[in-house]
Amino acid sequence: MVRAMTATHALHTDLYQLTMLAAYFHHGEAHRKATCELFVRRLPKNRRFLVVAGLERALRYLEQLRFTDEQIDVLHQIPGLKKAMSPAFVEYLRGFRFGGDVWAMPEGTIAFENEPLVRIEADLGEAQLVETFLLSCINHQTMIASKAARIVLALKGRTALEFGTRRTHFEAAVDVARSAWIAGFEATSNVAAFDAFGIPARGTMAHMFIMAAESERSAFLKYSKIFPRSTYLVDTYDTIEGVKAALETIGDDVSSVRLDSGDLASLTRQTRALLKERKREDVKIVVSSDLDEYEIERLITEGDFDVAGVGTRLATSDDAPSLGGVYKLTQIDGRPVAKFAEAKITYPGSHQVFRHQRDGHAHFDSLGLTKEPSYEFLGTEALLVEAMSGGRPTPAFAWGGAETLATMRARCRDGIAHLPAELKIVGARTDAHEKHYEVRPSAALLKLLDQVRADHTA
Predict the structure, then answer these.
(1) Contact 12/83 with Cβ under 8 angstroms?
(2) Do residues 445 and 367 touch, judged by C-beta distance below 8 A?
(3) pTM, whole model, 2 decimals?
(4) What is the pLDDT of residue 6?
(5) pLDDT tens digits, residue range 73-99?
(6) What share of the chain is helix, strand, coil (3-state, %, to 5)?
(7) Hey, CA dihedral for 78, 80, 81, 84, is it positive or negative?
């Protein structure tokens, strides 16, 4: 029998987070002061920048994190934890709360490799336990928002609609809609995303509605009586005949026609010609069916359309389906630490990202210490802001605060507008990893890295 998952997210973690938490506790180390940072070592293939997303869900998780008695009972049943589940550790879990501070890039910020997206300053036990959940929500939503931003760029001002719900997990689908909205999509097909976030919901008929009717024209007529001024799906039988049927049956109430199959480049050109011939330039052409930024660029060159519904390849980020964000300890009890494994070196200390502008565009970023000993960063934009203090969101990030979806969306739009032109190119579908933007470690950070390396090898 499958056990129903318990109500809070405390168990949404990897087991080794709990084994390490137990080890810290039993050795009296759970309350040591730790700094951990979440960052992406290298951008995925075909990505020239990232759009940060997922912070709101992360903050709500941290704010509400606790273990219920039912969850503690579950931990008693895990063989690998039984020895650790002493009465004292159980009481520690019952009182467990996240009481740390969070610094983060607000959602919609443009980010690059090796830049901390989130910095956690908390007791060691707290900082350890939250790793898995933070990586899960930040990696996923940032991956989707970054893909969505490329699609918006490819569309060159045309409208983007998110249609990916049926191609991903039902809970992830809401986050897909949210991330796409932040990145510039205009609406979603997902009603739960409208309920949760107020994202505009858009939808029309499916082929099933057409096929269930006596004829295509009958289906259009029935639909128009309930939903005036609508979009009509015209490719169930013959696309161009479907366009004619919609125009002739519904007349002025046809606002858009949607094409979902066939040679979209040719069919959109034929459809546009027909609309012009009938003096219906007001009717929009909507395309869908396995679209992404590469196919959209082709259709803009070879076809003629106004709106793109993008589903599968957005919801799965199919050309780069995972984001390799990692979460590493950078400081313990005030002592900077670093990892020196080959190809996985991390920077020690507590960090800030400083964006340098030139001629109104992002020129390069500096990865520095939170307390830089020079004036080099005067006039730059510090990208990480305080989002949580003492386990509570700061006013801007609290419910009803200034950090709204509209703010995130505007931030993303502004950030992309200020990118150098070469970063806004979609490029070819390729496996190549290329570096298009410089992130420079500061002199003070490099000096600290050398000191920590020397101390480690001494």
Answers:
(1) no
(2) yes
(3) 0.95
(4) 44
(5) 999 999 999 999 999 999 999 999 999
(6) 40, 20, 40
(7) positive
